[in-house]
Structures are given as C-alpha cells and as structure tokens.
Amino acid sequence: MAAGAVFSEYARYYDLLYKDKNYAAEADYIHGLIQRYRPETRTILELGAGTGKHAGLLSNHGYHVHGVERSEEMLEQAQRLAGELKQQDRQCLAPTFSLGDIRTARVEGRFDAVISLFHVVSYQTTNSDLIATFLTARGHLNTGGLFLFDVWYGPGVLTDRPVVRVKRMKDDCIEVTRIAEPVMHPQDNIVEVNYHVIIRNRETGHVDETRETHCMRYLFQPEIALLADHCGFYVDHSEEWLTGNPLSLEVWGACFILRVK
What we know:
Elements: H1 3-10, H2 14-17, H3 23-37, E1 43-47, H4 53-59, E2 64-69, H5 72-88, E3 96-99, E4 111-116, H6 127-139, E5 141-153, H7 154-159, E6 165-170, E7 174-185, E8 190-201, E9 207-219, H8 221-230, E10 233-240, E11 253-260
Parallel strand pairs: 1-2, 1-4, 2-3, 4-5, 5-9
Antiparallel strand pairs: 5-11, 6-7, 7-8, 8-9, 10-11
Helix pairs in contact: 3-4
C-alpha cells in the first residue's frame, strides 16, 4: 500500500490507538531541550504534524508553531484542534498547519527550530528521502537554529529485535484491534511492520478490516552525523528519547539535536 493510502486509513483511528500516549510529557520534554540548547527560540516548524497534538501543546509553552502534514485527513483533524484552541482562548498562539510532503515542503519564512516527532524521520527509508528531509529542515532554519527529531535507533533494534504485538483500544463508538507483524530487512536497515487492523462498531457490531505496511528505517549515530554534515548541520547532542539517558544497546528510541553550521 502506498504511503499516502496508508495514512489516509490510519487517520481514521490514529488518535484512538494512541490515546494512551503521553503527548503532554513529550511536549514538556521537547520544550526542555529547546530551552537548554536554544532558549531564545520563538518559532517552530513541525515536519509530520499528524493530528496536531504536539503542536497544540507546544503552543501552550508560548511558541508559534506551524505544522506540515501529508495526510489530508490528519491535517483536517489538526486544523480542527487549532480552531478549538482558538475558541477556548482567543489570545492563545494556536498552531497553524499546511498540507505537504516533508521531503519537498516549502513554507514561508524561517524558524528558530524544526522538529519531527514520533519516528517521522524513520519513515524516510531511503538515503535520498533522508537527505531531502534534512534539507527541508535546513532550508527553513534561522542562523544557529536546531533540528530536533527522534528515530528508531539501530543498536537497540538489532539487540532487542521487534516481535509480533497486539494492541486493543476502544472508545464509546468503536473498538480497534491492531496486530503488528514485523519483518526485518537488515540489508536495508528497515523493519517492515505489517498491520492487520480490525475495527468493530460497538453499537451495530459491524466489523471492518484493513491491512497496512509501515516501513521503518533504523539509524545509527555515525549515519546521522554523515547526513547532518552533508546537509549543513552538525550533531549537537543525542540521548534516549524522553529519559535523557545516554544512547546504548538497550535504547530503541533516540533523540538527536542538530544545529546549523
């Protein structure tokens, strides 16, 4: 299934599947890193904004956030969220959003920081995709600006290899069961995650099923450093996502902070 089609379907139940995700803690974590490495930051560009939850929470920290999202369905939800924030407080810095592919997107102006969260960079599975994404970030940053993102970290993925997982979530309307079956492609540094998603309407009992494939690139620190140098950055800092611990063989989620040369 093509990437656009994947995320068109995914948007239907994305927020339900991840309603247990602590977006507030993640936004606080990003805010802390920005304040540590570029405290004068006022404007943020988010590449791969999803349904806008990170952007909305970061706007509460006083940042002007603009998000780019390729899925029209997710973009619609993000814009709805921004409208709700504005309705709640007309003085708030509600985020803005636009449709675009992070490899090619160009928006007006430059920003103090570019962020790309929830493994969006790992969805860029080829070297050319990664370079294009890094160049998008570089082209939108002010002097001394930061590019902050998280990825699947290669040493951790190869040490603790992915296994079949089942996740079940429900709300008042639907119940979603997602079975994830991974296939390793070590010659390409890719994990192909095959999802079988079963969606049951709790009122009528009607069941829909869909199958999706998400290909994820796991990355290594020297690889990130090479990409950074090629695209006009240097690696300022790296750590385990959310914990701040040093990267190690036990780490799956790595956070990198690149700075414009």
